[in-house]
Amino acid sequence: MERRVVPTGVEGLDVVLGGGFPEKRLIVLAGCPGVGKTIFSAHFLYRGCVDCGDEGVYVSFAESKEAFYENMEDFGLDFKKLETKGKFRFLDLLTVKEEGVPAVIELILKEVADLGAKRLVIDSFSALAQAFKEPHEMRVFLHTVLSKICRFQGCTTLLIVENASENDKVVFGAEGFVADGLIRLKRKSLEHRLLRELEIFKMRGTPLSETLLVFTLKDGFKAFPSFKAKLVDNPQRFQPQPDTRGFYSTGSPSLDVVLGGGYPRGSAVLIEIGENVSTLQYHLLTVPTAWNFATQGRGVIIIPSAGVDYKVIRQKAEEGGITSDEINSLLRIFVKEHPGIKLEPYIVTFKGENMSEEYAKYLMVERELMERTGQPVLHVTGADTLIGTIGLKGTLSVLKTDATWIRETEGLGIILLKPGYPKMAKILSSIADIHVKIIREHGKILVYGVKPRTNLHVLEMDTSKGYPMPKLTQII
Ligand SMILES: Nc1ncnc2c1ncn2[C@@H]1O[C@H](COP(=O)(O)OP(=O)(O)OP(=O)(O)O)[C@@H](O)[C@H]1O
Ligand SMILES: [Mg+2]
């Protein structure tokens, strides 16, 4: 039999549910106060109405209609308009609750039938439960909702359940057993910052591609499945992002916003990479900065991280539409000398024996680029390569000297630090003007600023411009 689904109205959720909630079913949505249950439900009803033409009813035992309408307006959900059009009804049962469960059931049934509602939200089951006088009333209520509203009226129903604390052992009561779907919203702390999680405990008849998503309430309820790389359909040349006074653009408008304008001119930037973050993922943040320098005729010097071949870098440059001529004239990649190395104009070799000689060579390459282009230079340094060549102490000394030099020449230095150097991270953080961390949590890639301090942001890949760009959404 064909599986019929109802789009949830929540961005990012349908894709893991194979299209949406199973139709005509009862879904329990649980969570602590203020976690986002009402906002989730509002999207379910609003988008359902606007996108699918489904009439909806919101039954409230806690919030007044005025408060609900006003709060949801902040997210661009105009329920007043839906009500005027006869597509939506808000049923305020704050006082009716006291009259007992039969009265409540009767009113809900009547509204759903009158409107021919296809979607119903009961906010909340926990508030209604206070009116239950006998234990069997709960069963009667759940049974009525399941048989008369879900099955008979064909109305997909969200039943909200309140948890007292995030550590509640019992998240779902008896309603958890009869419900066809169980979702829990959670707030937690990660790296001393707010993380919001949505966990799908069950969804009958639905093959789930993932069960734990993160979400944000920024500009509405938006869920994020695991990071996915996208293909670029129609490759284009990178469009330079203008710098502002005092700041270099990171090349990504999205990252510029997170950092409050971009990277300050003459600054040292530390990008700390967490466990299990792939090269592709951190390149998403760093490569646009190099494109932004190259497409404005500025030089870029790179000491690649271990495992990143110069060919990979060349290929990255080409992804942004950087030409061979530009690569040859503006890019300089430092590669450790090895037998059979192919010398290209953009490759500079080093031996890793005499540090001061090598640093002098580095500065010469930089000076040549600066003089020829008449512009500042971007330095990208894989700290692990330096550490592997000149040790921790040598690396620190070089990076400190370089940071001072970059400040003087008003260039930009990006230091990439792979996991496994916690002490180094601390010291480099104190040298750096900007410190950004990129980490992985349940397959989601999260980015945040240590300096300046920011919230967590979810990283996605945006290929709409014809080249891979980061899209960062703040978790609030
Ligand atoms: N304009 C807004 N933009 C972003 N987030 C907001 C906005 N307004 C409120 N919030 C967030 O939404 C939360 C409230 O969400 P919601 O009302 O959906 O929670 P709830 O789970 O229904 O809470 P309760 O159990 O108290 O009914 C607030 O705690 C706040 O963090
Ligand atoms: Mg609520």
**Which molecules are bound besides the chains?**
adenosine-5'-triphosphate, magnesium ion
Q: Spans of 5+ residues with little confidence (pLDDT < 50)? A: none
The level of helicity is 25-40%
User: Spatial order of the strands in the main sheet?
Assistant: 17-16-15-18-19-14-20-21-22-23
Radius of gyration: 28 Å
- SS field, number of helical segments: 14
Major sheet, described briefly?
A: 10 strands, mixed
Number of strands: 23
- CATH-derived topology of the largest domain: Rossmann fold
Taking the alpha carbons of the first and last residues, their distance comes to 41 Å
What structural category characterises the helix and strand content?
alpha/beta
Describe the structure.
- By secondary structure, the chain is of the alpha/beta class.
- The protein has 2 domains: 5-224, P-loop containing nucleotide triphosphate hydrolases (Rossmann fold); 247-474, P-loop containing nucleotide triphosphate hydrolases (Rossmann fold, 3-Layer(aba) Sandwich), CATH 3.40.50.300.
- Helix content is 36%, strand content 26%.
- The protein has helices spanning 37-52, 65-73, 79-84, 101-115, 125-129, 135-152, 174-178, 253-258, 279-294, 310-319, 324-330, 355-373, 383-409, 422-431, and strands spanning 5-6, 21-22, 26-31, 56-60, 88-92, 119-123, 156-162, 181-190, 193-203, 212-216, 222-224, 247-248, 263-264, 268-273, 299-303, 331-336, 347-350, 377-382, 412-417, 434-441, 444-451, 457-462, 469-474.
- The strands form 4 sheets. A 10-stranded mixed sheet has the order 17-16-15-18-19-14-20-21-22-23, with helices on both faces.
- Residues 37-38, 123 line the site of magnesium ion.
- Magnesium ion (MG) is lined by residues 37-38, 123.
